[in-house]
Amino acid sequence: MNKPNAYQQLSQHFQQLAKLSHLNAITSWDQATMMPDGGNQARAEALAELAVIIHEKSTQPQLEEWLEQAKSQNLTSVQQASLREMERSWRNSTALPADLVKAKSLATARCEHAWREQRKANNWQAFQVNLQAVMQLAIEEAQIRADKSGLSRYDAMLDLYEPGMQMQRLDLVFGELQTWLPQLIQEVVDKQASWPKLKQYGNFPSEQQKQLGLAVMQKLQFDFKHGRLDVSAHPFCGGVPSDVRITTRYEEEDFTRSLMGIVHETGHARYEQNLPLDLVDLPVGQARSMGIHESQSLFFEMQLGRSQAFVEQLHPLVKQHLTQAKNMPLSELQQHYLSVKPGYIRVDADELTYPAHIMLRYQLERDLINQEIKVADIPELWDQKMQQYLGLSTKGNDKNGCMQDVHWPAGLIGYFPSYSLGAMYAAQFHAALVKAKPDTPDAVAKGDYSGVFAWLKQHIWSQASLYETDELVERATGESLNPAYFQQHLRSRYL
Amino acid sequence: MNKPNAYQQLSQHFQQLAKLSHLNAITSWDQATMMPDGGNQARAEALAELAVIIHEKSTQPQLEEWLEQAKSQNLTSVQQASLREMERSWRNSTALPADLVKAKSLATARCEHAWREQRKANNWQAFQVNLQAVMQLAIEEAQIRADKSGLSRYDAMLDLYEPGMQMQRLDLVFGELQTWLPQLIQEVVDKQASWPKLKQYGNFPSEQQKQLGLAVMQKLQFDFKHGRLDVSAHPFCGGVPSDVRITTRYEEEDFTRSLMGIVHETGHARYEQNLPLDLVDLPVGQARSMGIHESQSLFFEMQLGRSQAFVEQLHPLVKQHLTQAKNMPLSELQQHYLSVKPGYIRVDADELTYPAHIMLRYQLERDLINQEIKVADIPELWDQKMQQYLGLSTKGNDKNGCMQDVHWPAGLIGYFPSYSLGAMYAAQFHAALVKAKPDTPDAVAKGDYSGVFAWLKQHIWSQASLYETDELVERATGESLNPAYFQQHLRSRYL
Ligand SMILES: [Zn+2]
Ligand SMILES: [Zn+2]
Questions:
Q1: At CB < 8 A and 24+ separation, what contacts does B40-44 make?
Q2: CATH of domain A206-338+418-494
Q3: Interface predicted TM-score (ipTM) of this complex, two decimals
Q4: pLDDT digits (tens, 9 = 90+) for A347-383
Q5: Where along chain A do its domains lie?
Q6: Which residues form a coiled coil (chains A, B) (predicted)?
Q7: Does B53 touch chain A if contact means CB atoms closer than 8 Å?
C-alpha cells in the first residue's frame, strides 16, 4: 500500500476527531437527560479529559504541513471544499495560545457559575466584575483570531459560528430591520388588542404531551431509527447525524410551548439526519453554520409550524392526545401561536419581537468587542434600546435585562446574530420554494409536506458545507441573503 | 513544584485511564439502553477509536520503568496495594502482541456474529469451524500470558477475572461439588414433586413492574443520586461508581424473574456505589474480582432475596404495585423463588441447578485450554455431563447445549467459574455475618437490613482491591474460600 498523501492524512485525522466528538456528544446528552445529580463530578472530569485529548489531536504540528501540501494536490471540487473546511476548523482550533484558552475557561466558568445566583439577586455590580474579565479575554481572543485570519475583530469571532458573515453586512441587515420592526410590532399589538383572553384548560400530563410530540415528529418525518426524543432542562438538538437526540421540557399548565419547541428541534434534527452520509465524518459533511442550522429549525417552527395549514392539522392531534384539550377550538390554538407581546425575556419572545432582542444584543456585543463601549455602559444602553425597540424599560431590572442570557458569561461573542439570520434565511428559502413549486401551499394545506422536505433536502440538507454560506443560499434561492423576504413574511402573517 | 515521582506518575496515568473508561462505560450503557438501531455503526466506530486510545495509553513504554522505580519507593501499605493492582492491570493489558489482539478481535467478531444464526439453526458443524479458530487463539493467548506471569495457562486466563484463583483449587472445589450436587438436586426435585402447579395471573404491564422494581431498590438502599434503572435486552450493571446504571428486561407474563433480576443487579450496584471514593479512579479502588462482584449480587439475590423473610416483605409490595397480582398468595410467590427444575439453559437455571451448569463449563474449558480435549469433542462431552449432573440429554440439541452461551464465541475463557465462586463466597459471607451478629435473622425478619449492609460495607465494599481475594475473604470470615457454607446453605434452604 502506498503511503497516504497529505489530503488522505488530513481526512483520517478529521475522521478520528469525529469519533471523539461522537463520545462527547453522547455523554453530554446523557449529562443533560439521564445522569443523576451525583454523577456530575466524574462526568465533568471525564469530559475535560476528552477535551484535552481532542485539543492535543487538533493541534498536532503535522496538520499545518499537510494542509500546505494538500493545496498543491490535484483535488476534485468536493475535496477542495473539504480541504477548505478542514483548514477553517484547524485555524479556529489552533488560533489561541494555551494560556489564553485556560484563562478564558477559568474566567467563563467563574462568571457563569456566579451569574446563576447574581442574576436571581439582580446584582449587576457583582456580576460586572466577572463579565469585565470575560470580555477583556474575548477582546484579546478576537484580536488574535483577527491577526491570524486577516478578518476584523468581530468578523473573526463571527467566523466561529457564521463563517463568511461580516459586521458590515450585519450593520446593513439590522440597520434596515431597525427602520421598520418597532413600528410593525406596535401595529400588530394594536391589531391584537381586541383578541379574546385565552382560556385555561387545566393540566396536561407530560406523558400525554410526549405522545403528542412523538406524533408530530412522525408527521414531520423525523427518523426514529436514527434519533429519539427526551427531556432536559434546556431543550437542544444533540447526538450525531446517525443518532440525533432532541429534547424538550414539558410544562403541565401549557402544552403549546413544548409542542412548538419539538417542531423547532425536529427541524434541526432533520438537517442532521439528512447530511450526506459519505462525508459525515469530515468538516465538509457537517452543517453549514449556526445561522443555516437555525434556518432549518425556524423553517419548521415559523414558516411551516405556525402557518394556518399546519396549526389546522395540529388541532385534531392535540384534541386526540390531550384529555384536557379535547374541546379546545382551533381559533384558540391559532391564537396561542400568533400572539405578539413585547416582553423582557428573549427566550420567551414571539416570532415578531424576537429579532428586536437580537438586534439589541448584536449592537452591544459589536461595540464591546470594538471597544466603543464598556461593560459598565451595558445596563443603560440595554434600557435605552429596549425602550426604543419594544417600549419597555429595564432600569433597575437587570436580571430581566442585560443579565438574562448565558451567552456573554460563557464567552460566546458573535453567536447571537445567527438566531435572526436563521429566521431571515428561513423566510427566503420558503419564498424560493413557493416560487419553484407554486403548488406548495395547496399540498401543505392537504397535509402533504413531501415537496417541502424534498426541496430542503436537495438545496440545504444534502449540501452540508460543500459551499460557503453565500453560495449555498444563492444556489438555493438565486440570490444571497435578502432580508426583504423576512419582512414580507412577517407583514403577511401578522398584519 | 517538584517533578512527580514514579508512583505519582503511575497514579496520574491510571486516573486518566479511568476517565476514558468512564466514557466507554456511559456510551456502552447508552448503546444497550437508549440508542436507536441506526446509531450502531457510528457508535461501534467511536468505541473502537476509544479502545485504540486506551490501548495506546495502557502500553506506553514509560509505564514499565515507573513500575520498576516505584517498587523501591517508600510507600504506605495502601500505596503498595495500589502499585500491585496497577502492575496487574498493566501486565494484563500489555501481555499480548498487537497482531494477536487483532487476530482475536477478528476471530471472535466473526464467531459471535455467525453464532447468532448458527445457534438458531442448531448448526454445530458450521459453528465449530469458527470456534476452533477462537479456541486456537485463546490457547495462544493463555500460553503468552502464562509465560509472562509464571502462572499455568488456565491460571493466567483466570487472572483476568479472578486474580489469585488457580485451577488446582477449582478442581478441588468443583470435584467436591460433583460428589453431592447431582444427588441433592434429585432429592429436592422429588420433594417438590408434590408442589401445586403455579397459577397464571395474566399480564403485568412493564410500567407497574418498573415501579415495583424501584420500590424494591429503595428498600435495598440503592442510591438514586448515584445511579438509575433502565431496560436492556440483557440485564447488566454498568456505569461508574458515582453513577451506576443497572438494567432489567420486563416480561409481561412473568414479573418474578425481572424482579429478582433487579435485586441481583442492585447487589452489584451497591458494591460499586460503596467503593472507597478516594481511590475510585485507581485500580486498587475497583471491585476485587468477578467472583467477589458476583458474591454481592448473589448475596442480594440468593442469601437475602430468596429468603423467607425477604419474600414475605416483597409480597405486600407485589400486591400493591401489580394490579393482576393483588390476590396472589404468599405461598405462590415463595414457590416461584424456590422451585428447582433441571433444565438445558444456564441463564434460566435456579439456584440449585446453576452450579451444575458452571461445573460442566469449567471442566470443558479447562481441558480445552490444556489441549486435553478438542473443540470437536464438545457436543458429546456436554451431553454426557448434562446426563450425569442433571439427568438431561443434549444429543442433537446443541443449540440448547454447547451452543447456548456467548462466552466462548467471544473468547472469554476463565470467566465461568466466577459465577459459582460468587455463590460460594456469598454463602460464606452470610454465615460469617450471622456468626458475628447473631441477631441478623431477627432484624431481617423485621425488614431491617441495616446490619447486613453495614457488614458488607465494612468487610467487602469499602475494601475494594486493597487485599488479594484470599486475604479479603479471610479478613471478612476468618478463613479462605470454604465451599462447605454453600452446601449447608443449599441443604437448609431446599431440603
Ligand atoms: Zn434552534
Ligand atoms: Zn451478576
A1: B41/A242, B42/A22, B42/A240, B42/A241, B42/A242, B42/A243, B43/A22, B43/A26, B43/A243
A2: 1.10.1370.30
A3: 0.94
A4: 999 999 999 999 999 999 999 999 999 999 999 999 9
A5: 1-94, 206-338+418-494
A6: none
A7: yes
